[in-house]
Design brief:
Structural class: alpha/beta
Domain F-box: 1-48
Protein name: F-box domain-containing protein
Oligomer: single chain
Radius of gyration: 29 Å
Distance between the termini: 50 Å
Strand content: 15-25%
Shape: globular
InterPro entries: F-box-like_dom_sf (IPR036047), F-box_dom (IPR001810), LRR_dom_sf (IPR032675)
Number of strands: 19
Pfam families: F-box-like (PF12937)
Length: 513
């Protein structure tokens, strides 16, 4: 008995929102009414994955591809829109080296992959795509370079519902490592993909002077494995991009190469994962960053050949010449994943990252730099040298206080200090006169936060803040979280600060966003 018969279609559709893949197809098989209602939910589509990567035998590929094509037919016949992930790779050379004791039949199968796989993928997968293009909302394809031309031919038809496209041509197949792919066709989707908002490309050549109409208006672009010299070409291909991610920009130009780069006025967000070279940033990447003020920049910086990370900092902060808020923290991987977009999430498990984040007060522009902790001092010193006269608000964890004291000699404009009490200290820490102190003549407000309830066990730590950051006049102390009355009314605190107030903040974010 269908107990949903008495419910309006809108309520049934709301219930479908709570389902996950592959429950879409299960809903379609319940009854005609459920199938009809499900088709009206915009976010409700069949998500199908062909993950045929590096099987040992040709029959394994054939079986997996046959299953995928059957699921594709079923979903389409049920009237659902489609989200497809097609990833097929093979490496015959690697298989031949896997087991030298294997029999002749095994070697024959491995050899057949090079001969048969391009044809199998072309006939069973690529050539059927055109009939499904009107229904596809998301398409991500990762195929060997041998399949590049065949896939392009299958995508010469309109894709009216396509919102997200990913293309990655990597791996083996028939094409040797030294062969170069042609460019994407100007006839891609016959120039018609009006709903396309997200594009991801890896190992896909972009040719100067060739504009692809179907992709030219995409606002969100992810690129991986491109050369520094490609940046002007990227700008000409995608003039409407607002959110750009560049991952693994390792190839660089010579300093004397003169390639013009016009301002990319539409850019609102730039996300980078880049290797810093001995002379600093890659040439065109540096020109992109300094050529215009991009409102939001996120950059994960790595060093190569013992390059000084600090040398890459000045281009990023060239446009930060007004009052700023600065945040300095160590982040674990979970904190990075919850705060920052890809490719910044490509951090090894259990890795710790150091975050430098700047916000401008005037227009809320944001710069976030992520570096390895052992490279953080160089980057922080560079920020201190260039921005000390602009910092009015500083946030940091108490455990990282020493780095700040070493990098800065004064903060003349600082008015607010915000500290996460992540460790405990005792009274001897306050009396250590050998440590440097930071003069902050305008400091007017000190904000302290500790997790959970905290009391006099944090007294010495809070007093140590005022010992290290020396104001001209007594500042106000703001205790966030759940401080106990014994701390709020401590005579020692009342003698060090002009007043103590409590704000009921229950958490302390390490990002200013």
């Amino acid at each position: 008995m269908d107990h949903s018969l008495g419910l309006p279609n809108e309520m049934v559709a709301t219930t479908f929102h709570y389902l996950s893949q592959p429950d879409v197809l299960r809903v379609a098989r319940v009854c005609s009414r459920w199938r009809s209602v499900a088709r009206t939910v915009p976010e409700f589509y069949a998500h199908l994955i062909l993950d045929g990567d590096h099987f040992n035998k040709l029959p394994a590929y054939e079986q997996r591809i046959e299953t995928f094509t059957r699921q594709l037919r079923d979903a389409a016949s049920a009237g659902f829109r489609l989200s497809l992930v097609i990833s097929v790779q093979w490496d015959a050379d690697e298989q031949l080296d896997t087991d030298y004791s294997s029999d002749e039949e095994y070697h024959h199968d491995a050899y057949d992959l090079d001969e048969v796989m391009p044809k199998l993928v072309r006939e069973a997968v690529i050539r059927v795509l055109p009939q499904y293009l009107p229904r596809i909302v998301k398409l991500h394809v990762a195929l060997p370079a041998a399949c590049f031309d065949d896939l392009q031919q299958s995508l010469h038809y309109p894709a009216p519902e396509l919102s997200s496209l990913g293309l990655d041509f990597v791996g083996s197949g028939e094409i040797g490592e030294d062969e170069v792919l042609g460019s994407l066709s100007v006839d891609l989707f016959n120039g018609h993909a009006p709903k396309l908002t997200r594009l991801q490309l890896a190992n896909v050549p972009l040719v100067e002077g060739v504009v692809i109409p179907a992709l030219s208006r995409v606002p969100t672009l992810y690129l991986e494995y491109y050369a520094d010299r490609d940046i002007p070409v990227i700008a000409s291909h995608f003039p409407a991009v607002r959110h750009l991610s560049l991952d693994d920009i390792r190839h660089v130009m010579e300093d004397d190469e003169d390639i013009p780069l016009s301002p990319w006025s539409t850019l609102e967000t730039l996300v980078l994962d880049v290797v810093v070279l001995p002379h600093g940033l890659p040439v065109m990447l540096g020109a992109l960053i300094t050529g215009q003020c991009i409102p939001n920049v996120y950059a994960r910086l790595h060093s190569e050949d013992y390059a000084d990370i600090g040398i890459a900092v000045p281009p990023f902060i060239e446009h930060f010449q007004s009052s700023i808020h600065l945040s300095l923290f160590h982040l674990d991987r979970a904190e990075t994943a919850s705060s920052y977009p890809p490719p910044l999430l490509n951090i090894p498990p259990d890795a710790v990252t150091y975050q430098i984040e700047l916000h401008t007060v005037a227009n809320s522009n944001c710069l976030t730099l992520l570096v390895d902790p052992d490279e953080a001092p160089s980057a922080v010193v560079e920020v201190a040298n260039l921005m000390r006269e602009h910092i009015i608000y500083l946030r940091f964890a108490f455990s990282g206080k020493a780095l700040i004291l070493d990098a800065f000699d004064s903060l003349q404009q600082l008015t607010t200090l915000h500290v996460d009490l992540d460790i405990r200290v005792n009274g001897r820490d306050i009396e250590d006169g050998r440590r440097p102190v930071l003069y902050c003549p305008r400091l007017d407000r000190v904000v302290a936060y500790a997790p959970g309830q905290y009391g006099l066990d944090r007294l010495d730590q809070i007093r140590a803040i005022l010992h290290d950051f020396v104001p001209e006049h007594l500042p106000l102390l703001v205790l966030q979280g759940n401080p106990l009355p014994e701390l709020v009314h401590s005579p020692l605190l009342l003698s060090d600060f002009r007043g103590v107030i409590v704000e009921p903040t229950q958490s302390f974010s390490k990002t200013l966003l």
